[in-house]
Amino acid sequence: MFPAPLVITAPHFLPGETETLAALCDRFGCRIHLRKPQADPAELRRFIERLAALADPRLLTLHYDAETAAETGLGGFHAALPAQPASAEQLLSRPLHRLEELDDPDYADADYVFLSPVFDSISKNGYRAAFDPATLAARLQARRRPFDVVALGGISPRNIGTARRWGFDGAALLGALWSRYRTAADRDLILRLYEQNLQAWNRQ
Hints:
Blueprint: E1 6-8, H1 17-28, E2 32-34, H2 41-54, E3 60-63, H3 66-71, E4 76-78, E5 91-96, E6 112-115, H4 133-141, E7 148-151, H5 160-166, E8 170-173, H6 175-178, H7 187-202
Parallel strand pairs: 1-2, 1-8, 2-3, 3-4, 4-5, 5-6, 6-7, 7-8
Helix pairs in contact: 1-2, 1-7
């Protein structure tokens, strides 16, 4: 469904961010999750329109706002239950935080889900890994689910391969990228960091 890893944006706007995200899409074809929970709606729409002019909008998923996701022609929508997808053509993703939710039929409409936190978070202090590794791996490798499962939380080159060995279908990068980003001059650094994670995933 998607090349690993996915990218989730920083929660706030960053200098030169649209060009950096477009460069990730162009070079790696990765799916970008646009998550700006405190953004002004008008500012968020302008951000999306700028990005969609630079990158394939089908590679973009918007969090929370189904109407804007549909109106701007984005390829995906992400929201917790009970929110429904904006359109049948869009990929739908959901957040999960408990292994038991993998068996919940209410999530069967999702194309993929984020399970978190898998490792200690890079971007959130004190947000610790929530799962026993052996139990998590056994549950994922049983493959009893209608959707793909993406690892979220603390993903970096040192552990992304572990996530794949445990049975995750993909992984999502957040703090591993944006904690190092300050200005548009860091764009090449972000591309290198993404490539390091991609290579580590593909080695498994």
